[in-house]
Amino acid sequence: MSEQSHGGPEHSGAVEHAGAEESRQYAVDNPGLPPHRPRLADEDPRAAKRAERQVAFLFGLSIVGTLLFFVGYFVVGQIGPGTPISTVRLQNMLLGLGTAFAMFGIGVGIVHWAKTLMPDHETTELRHEVRTEADRQVAVGMIEDIIDETQVKRRPLLRNTLIGAGVLAVLPAIAIFRDLDDTDNRSEFAAENFGPERLRHTMWATDVRLVRDPTGTPIKASDVTIGSAFHVIPEGLNELDPHEMLNQKAKAVVLLMRLNPEDMQVSPEREDWNVDGIVAYSKVCTHVGCPVALYEQHTHHLLCPCHQSTFDLTQECKVIFGPAGHALPQLPIRVNEEGFLVARSDFHEPVGPAYWERG
């Protein structure tokens, strides 16, 4: 039986042949754009005004939510070990509701604005490369048309409430990241309790011994062999109050390793910061503060498991890959008379993320 009688692909019409039947029409023609269906706000000025008030109300709700957040964050006060549970619950409720209203109001308000007031005509335009000055002017004109279509200029109530909600919505995040203090001395706003100074100083000081984490066993230089890595804390850390111990450990935790001195590129000012290839670096990643805990002996790389930032131990923990923007701070060390590794001083720079105030 022939292929045609079997309905083969070459004769069934399932396969198109180049150049054949050029005048043949496609099975489905381009339907074009659907007819525009006007909304109620497009035909009724009262409906448009009502929609404008609804959007402004939602933006106002966002503003109220942000203010509610600040009431919970600043007015309720510092939460500590002795704080009554009722105060903790009140603050959590205010923070949660404030954040929810702030995000809900501005988000739903923008969506409602777009659905009810912004032009919704569907158009089709060809994309052209913007190269000539005339094309640039056309692009500028398109941007101006978009601004006009948003009706920002014609509806100052929406513009002003949106600006207010948008500006206030980011303030809680700024306050949270700015506030690095966890002491009861919040009202003084002292420089030593806020900002980079809080991360500049740790428990490391002259002649403080390096001890293993978490046992607290002192480390001798002879204990550190090439390729080994120790998780290190300052001596005396484990004797602190549990709350204070965690705060201090978050800043002071260190990685201790030993390299072949010939593989190291040491800056002139750091020549006495290592002991025959034994080096100590902060374990706190300079991206967002995750613990750097992976050491590759053959490549001499330290890796942060959170976002894959990679630091080269032979180049004083310089960033060679990933989002971290700063090398890991180095802890100067030496050997005391008993052969134990001790710190020469504290870190010479703040530990942790490379934020804008770091210097």
Automatic annotation (TrEMBL):
Major subcellular location class: membrane
Domain Rieske: start-end pairs: 273-342
Molecular function (Gene Ontology), one example: metal ion binding
The organism's place on the tree of life at top rank: Bacteria
Subcellular location: Cell membrane
Annotated Gene3D superfamilies: Rieske [2Fe-2S] iron-sulphur domain
Membrane topology summary: Multi-pass membrane protein
Cellular component GO terms held in the UniProt record: plasma membrane
Transmembrane segments: 55-75, 95-114, 157-177
SUPFAM superfamilies membership: ISP domain (SSF50022)
Summary of the function given for this chain in its UniProt record: Iron-sulfur subunit of the cytochrome bc1 complex, an essential component of the respiratory electron transport chain required for ATP synthesis. The bc1 complex catalyzes the oxidation of menaquinol and the reduction of cytochrome c in the respiratory chain. The bc1 complex operates through a Q-cycle mechanism that couples electron transfer to generation of the proton gradient that drives ATP synthesis.
Family from the record: Belongs to the Rieske iron-sulfur protein family.
The name this protein goes by in its record: Cytochrome bc1 complex Rieske iron-sulfur subunit
Organism of derivation: Citricoccus muralis
